[in-house]
Automatic annotation (TrEMBL):
<protein>
    <submittedName>
        <fullName>Polysulfide reductase NrfD</fullName>
    </submittedName>
</protein>
<keyword id="KW-0812">Transmembrane</keyword>
<feature type="transmembrane region" description="Helical">
    <location>
        <begin position="143"/>
        <end position="167"/>
    </location>
</feature>
<feature type="transmembrane region" description="Helical">
    <location>
        <begin position="304"/>
        <end position="324"/>
    </location>
</feature>
<dbReference type="InterPro" id="IPR054823">
    <property type="entry name" value="DsrP-like"/>
</dbReference>
<keyword id="KW-0472">Membrane</keyword>
<feature type="transmembrane region" description="Helical">
    <location>
        <begin position="26"/>
        <end position="45"/>
    </location>
</feature>
<feature type="transmembrane region" description="Helical">
    <location>
        <begin position="220"/>
        <end position="239"/>
    </location>
</feature>
<dbReference type="InterPro" id="IPR005614">
    <property type="entry name" value="NrfD-like"/>
</dbReference>
<feature type="transmembrane region" description="Helical">
    <location>
        <begin position="65"/>
        <end position="86"/>
    </location>
</feature>
<keyword id="KW-1133">Transmembrane helix</keyword>
<feature type="transmembrane region" description="Helical">
    <location>
        <begin position="98"/>
        <end position="123"/>
    </location>
</feature>
<keyword id="KW-1003">Cell membrane</keyword>
<feature type="transmembrane region" description="Helical">
    <location>
        <begin position="373"/>
        <end position="395"/>
    </location>
</feature>
<feature type="transmembrane region" description="Helical">
    <location>
        <begin position="179"/>
        <end position="205"/>
    </location>
</feature>
<feature type="transmembrane region" description="Helical">
    <location>
        <begin position="331"/>
        <end position="353"/>
    </location>
</feature>
<comment type="similarity">
    <text>Belongs to the NrfD family.</text>
</comment>
Amino acid sequence: MIKQLTIFASMAKDGLNEALQGNKSYHIWMGSLTMLMLLGAYCYHQQLNVGLSATGMSDRVSWGLYISNFTFLVGVAAAAVMLVLPTYILHDFDFSKAVLIGEGLAASALIMCLAFVTVDLGGPIRAWHLIPGIGRFNWPDSMLAWDVIVLNGYLIINLTVPLYILISKYQGLQPNKKIYLPGVFLSVFWAVGIHMVTAFLYAGLPARPFWNNALLGPRFLASAFAAGPALIILVLQVIDRYSDYKIDKVTIRKISLVVAVAAQINLIMLFSELFKEFYAPTHHSISAVYLFFGLDGKNALMPWIYSSIAMNIVATIILTLHVLRKDIKWLNFACLLLFVAIWIEKGMGLIIPGFIPGPYGDIVEYSPTLIEIGVTLGIWAMGAFIFTILVKAAIPIEVGKLRYKNNKSVSTIEP
């Protein structure tokens, strides 16, 4: 046990040294993220002083930009399964070099998810209610309690499995499949669970008919498996360009095919929901009417949702056409469009309309304040900062440049 702690401490020290080194562009990137995190910390300090009245949220619209980003990032975290599944279960090792990056992205996204929940509580001290045995956890009746369990469980899986593999490779040893494969298989089911449980959290609120939809869970998964791998494609190209960790073109092509299929399914589900809302509209369709057409002259969300649908359609067309999808410039453009489109769809297009109109038919529109935007930018910067450090420390171990110096015997490492 003491030896393993010594090896872990050595790996952490060597990894930190790697993270502190880089060219001018790298230090500008890390410095920019640090400035954004400081901005976010300042805005959060202001929010703590004033309370949630510093945000655009109210007793009518009680979930805003924070929960919108939380919902979206749960999908980004779940997307790692689309790399783990073909690599370890289907034995398609063209995905293998992307798995490490995907799991690092999942861990960073989950940390951001927990951060967004924390800032939405109004104060971190209120999180004690979520601690089993101390607060009123209310498990298993509360879907929120289930969400806390699956998010923290998935975070532990995405930290421990890659950590074991990296520690083994750091010592020049072959990772034992009997140790890490059970965690890999568990992560596949758990990844689906985190997004389904989050969807059930909304769908289980019958007083919010806009969310009370049986298709919400499957659509959450479709959008997650589109937006998450789309981001991974962009990240892989940056890593391939600026590091020694080279990504084969076939890996990008196969992930882009996953994105294309998921985007198509997501679009089909979107049109299915539109048919359900507007072919035979009822009083329960009023939130959708507000979102797409406005009510009583108030239509703040219309530009958001129509922009999202337009970007979704354009991106899906590009990804569907093989000629365009194989062109890296068109592929990157489509991935960026799709990522932004689903971010809007999961935020301004899903969370906010669920609260409008209010219980008495009043329309109180929501617009995020500068405080909310500052805190949000800070959390995104924190996630990018953590992900950059994880990747910068892990890549030298993965490519064999960083090894435990006291270990004299080096064995073959499986691909």
